[in-house]
Amino acid sequence: MSQEETYPVKGSDGGSKFEWSPDMSVGNAPLNEDHKAFFEMAKMLSEVQGANDREVIIESALSILEEYVGGHFLREEKAMRAVNYPRLAGHVLKHGSFRARVKAIADLYRAGTKSAADGLPDIVADWLRAHILSEDLQYKNWINDSVVDSRPLVYLSIESDT
Amino acid sequence: MLVNFSFSDKNCLVVCNKPDLARLIVHTLRQIGLVNVAKADEAEHAYLQLTKSNVDLVILLDFGAEESVAMLRRIRHHNLPAIATIPTICVSEAWSGEQIVQLRDAGVTVLATLPLTMRTLLKHATRALNPREFVTAATYRGPCRRSKAHLNYSGPLRRNDDMAGSQSTSQRHPPPPAAEEARISAPIPDRTAVVQMAKPSAIQPDAHEPPEMRQTRIVIDNAYETAMEVDGLSSQLHRAGSPRQRASLCRDIAMASERMINLMSLADVRVQEFGCSDGIVDKLESIRTTIIRNAEGLAEAGARRVVEYGRRILSGHSGVPLGVTVALTHQIARIDAIVEVVGGLDKLAEASRTAIVQAREVTASIAALETQSSLSIPDFSSPQRVRK
Fold first, then answer.
1. pLDDT at B148 (0 to 100)
2. Which one of B5, B17, B61, B117 would you mutate to disrupt binding with A, by most A Cβ within 10 Å of its Cβ?
3. Prediction ipTM score
4. Which domain holds residue A110?
């Protein structure tokens, strides 16, 4: 089991596992906003489980989550690449692994296994918390605002597919 | 289509009575750069927000088709042009064809379906915030819906850009800029209601309507009423069983059609001379649609009249009027034109086809008879003409 998967489920400040906390700040507003958006998405997914119109919301949420993953990871990787961050390769590998995991869950859900999405909120929140604290904080002192693409996430998501 | 369009200065209002869905979409709108997003969970609250704050985009999110149409109408009919022209996106899990027509007629800017993604939201928002020309007509208010330019279009030119391109050919003129705001804020009738009006009395007369326009409207109302009559007769014709019943209905259709065509000719002259409102144009279009729909009945009725008249001449019950062949040939040409509208003789019912073929044969026989009679001087001493 990797270090990322052994992190506690509660926020480090004792808050909800679906909340971003200041100790997760990577020192850049767009990247912090992306992380907050991920937590918010995980929280929404967890809260929608019992809703009447659950399916249509989850269908949208899964597609949006996939776009978030693609766009945010590209934003980070572009910044790291711009400053020749030495641990870029390993970081990219971890991104790729999580992207594949989310895609597999989304595909399974779309293929008819609706229960596939049940554990997704926890998977996202846990992975993200662990990843930020163990990996992202390491590039905090390498990057600066000038190397981070600050466009809205949707444009990076589109770029990640091209 | 994707452009780096900045939404940072735009204010959006999401109207949705499903909190989870609203939350997801508001959250996603932020990721496409639309950060100033307000929410409303019912129509009155939304309307209040629209009037009290500066809203650049309204998203009616899974709000129900009827409620969305009602909300759109309230927006498009607002007195303030800034509110009446707000781009509006309607989103639902699915739209029926009827709902799409209603929403389009109510002036929707963009129609979308769930599930939504960041990209589809960006696409819809970009399209909505870069809308096409806003059209204000008597029966429609909303973004321009013209899909393509028709090279051979010969109808009325009503748009400002039409006027700029063809001042010389148009019969109409755009309103002066100062009058445009007043025109936008004027109440407009519902198009569906106008099209479905069966009787002219359903129209409320406008006290300020110029006399020429009022007369034109009366003529067109009569034509419209006659078109409805033809429509009703035509429906009966399709259900008619016996030949006698069919012949009777065809005669009635022919009489009503002739009356309608005369009224339409008069209306055409008046429209060319005095112009007309957009409401009248819509009504003329409805009449035209009725004529096309009833083309088969018209063709058959015309053919039966030719046959009936021609047979009276051929049997000797009537004389051979001077120029009868020209008149009948003209009638046949009119029938042929109507048959073309339907798609040719093969598309007609057996009874209609037979009547038209007989009409042609009778016309040919009368043409031969007329030729024969014009070449010979009548013999007044023949035994048939000698009084006993």
1. 61
2. B117
3. 0.86
4. 28-160
